[in-house]
Amino acid sequence: MAKIKKGDLVQVITGGKAERGGDRGKQGKVLKVYTDTNRVLVEGVNRVTKHTKAGQTERGTNTGGIEIVEAPIHASNVAVVDPSTKKPTRVGYRIETVERDGRERQVRIRVAKTSGKDLA
Questions:
Q1: Four-residue CA torsion sign, 116, 90, 5, 19
Q2: What pairs with residue 120 in β-bridges?
Q3: Which residues form the KOW domain (predicted)?
Q4: Domain map of the chain by residue range?
């Protein structure tokens, strides 16, 4: 089970200092989670140059060229940001009993370990 979900605000905790071209310390929103390879796609982090082959669309416009896109990074290299302190934290769970449709159900709620605040 992944502790990082789409839409989370995460911070890169490893991978070279930002002033030397790395991404450590940068924060961004998770765009996609790849559970099979345990990687995440983070907005504005791990940007790579991609060369696409020239071609034509149905309308006749030329495609291709050089574009800069985000590449996935391993989930262990990012940490979820605590909403109250804006610093990286670990993720824990709290189990609450909620009544729905006349039946009691147990719901797992993600919480920040440092402050105890709920994560969205």
A1: positive
A2: none
A3: 20-43
A4: 1-81, 85-120
Which residue has tokens 């302190």? 85
CATH class of 1-81: mainly beta
- What the block records as the tokens of 24 is 């450590």
The Cβ of residue 50 has, within 10 Å, a number of other Cβ atoms equal to 11
Query: Six-digit token pair at 58?
Result: 């149905």
* CB proximity list for 51: less than 8 A, separation 6 or greater: 65, 66
Question: pLDDT tens digits, residue range 30-85?
Answer: 999 999 999 999 999 999 999 988 887 787 777 788 989 999 999 999 999 999 99
Q: What is the pTM of this model?
A: 0.81
